[in-house]
Design goal:
Elements lengths: L5 H31 L14 H18 L3 H19 L26 H27 L5 H24 L1 H28 L9 H24 L10 H23 L10
Helix pairs in contact: 1-2, 1-8, 2-3, 3-4, 3-5, 3-6, 4-5, 5-6, 6-7, 7-8
Length: about 280
């Protein structure tokens, strides 16, 4: 059995860990469902005892994506996705009246529960502060020539744009961020990831993957795109269906997300320098 290098093991475990975060979300949902039932969306479980696992899994995803981002266009896409993952966790979804037992929603249709505004404020302000600190550290490393500014330039530009957009919205229209922030972050995250899967199926600067892997990546990209269309179309009427159709669509997106990382782990298991692939 050939010995592996430290970078190989690091990338293997990171990819498996990202896939594992989906298992964390599903297990926590399943346990919460025994007491609150099957809710309208996956994100509704933020308001149940599954909250800590849900938030922790998404923060872990953000950190892992930054570590796994590699270089080139895939780096920019994964770094951008890493910006949106914490927002999905820190800005809870809106709720329908009676959507989650014990959570007060004083409106006729889906809106943000007032009792959680302080939690969201803490999360958004923490996100902005840590995001700014991350940008400053990256600029310092570039100034010290520890990283090449050209390799992280697009990621820094996207980070600044997202931070400014989130900060300005929170400052001037906080209720808009509470009402739409989770939805926008979710769409952006999975849309970016569909592009990542497509890029892996049809890479620009490296040899294409062998047919089985190429087909899997292409299938994941198409699947995520289809789920996103369904999500946008169904979410406004999510509480009108007799079955949790939106929850199923979100679960499919999470399964596809996990499948990508498992596939990439298998494909690149023995790559000597996985950071450059």
């Amino acid at each position: 059995m050939a010995s592996s290098t430290s970078p190989q093991r690091t990338y293997r475990y990171l990819r498996l860990a990202v896939a594992g975060t989906v298992a964390v979300i599903f297990v926590s949902m399943g346990i919460a469902a025994t007491s609150v039932g099957w809710l309208t969306t996956v994100s509704d479980y933020f308001y149940t005892p599954a909250r800590n696992a849900f938030v922790g899994a998404l923060i872990a995803v953000a950190v892992a994506l930054l570590a796994l981002s590699g270089r080139g266009l895939e780096r920019a896409l994964l770094d951008a996705a890493a910006l949106f993952a914490p927002l999905i966790a820190l800005i809870p979804t809106t709720l329908a009246p009676g959507g989650v037992p014990g959570v007060d929603v004083p409106c006729a249709e889906r809106c943000f529960p007032p009792g959680f505004e302080a939690d969201a404020a803490n999360g958004v302000l923490t996100y902005l502060a840590v995001g700014l600190l991350t940008v400053l550290v990256a600029l310092l490393l570039a100034a010290l020539r520890q990283v090449e500014l050209a390799t992280v330039g697009w990621s820094l530009i996207v980070a600044v744009v997202v931070l400014v957009a989130v900060g300005a919205t929170w400052l001037f229209a906080p209720h808009l961020l509470l009402a739409q922030g989770h939805f926008v972050a979710t769409i952006a995250f999975f849309a970016l990831f569909a592009l990542v899967a497509l890029l892996n199926a049809f890479p620009r600067r490296t040899a294409p993957p062998v047919p089985p892997f190429r087909a899997i990546y292409a299938g994941i990209a198409v699947g995520l795109a289809a789920v996103l269309v369904a999500y946008v179309a169904l979410l406004p009427r999510a509480d009108d269906f007799g079955a949790p159709i939106v929850l199923v669509a979100e679960a499919v997106a999470l399964v596809l997300f996990a499948a990508f990382w498992v596939t990439q782990c298998v494909e690149k298991w023995n790559v000597p320098d996985p950071a450059l692939v």
